[in-house]
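Cross-check.
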Amino acid sequence: MPDIGSTEFTMLWASVLLGIVYLLASVLASVAGRGMPWAMGARDGTWPELGPVGARLERAWRNFTETFPLFAAAILLEAQVTPDSDLASLGAQLYFWGRVAFLPLYALGLPLVRTLAWTVSLAGIVLVLISCLPGV
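Predicted model, tokenized:
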């Protein structure tokens, strides 16, 4: 039985909340840039352009949705294979804090440090997966 109070599950829970923050940032920027009639409409035609920050927040949200399923799957796998792994705990924290840093860094348009934050989060996923290997 997985320990739902573990660091890994805490980071998974926190990452779900963080995903909501990413989503809201993207939605609010989209509504601010495109207007409420667009947000409430069918959006069949061409979409009004977003400003640079709004477009970055939209891309950050898409990027989160690309990495989060991998993180969640890795955490669930680790809970079944090697629960309470220190390596998985570290990996889960790296993913979460890398994603926390990524959103404002991307919104501010800071490419090098944004990429570093993304790399930290990806390294976190890799560490969780490594913790699942036999003998680790």
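The mean pLDDT is 92. Residues 27 and 77 are 32 Å apart (CA to CA). Passed to J.P. for a second look.
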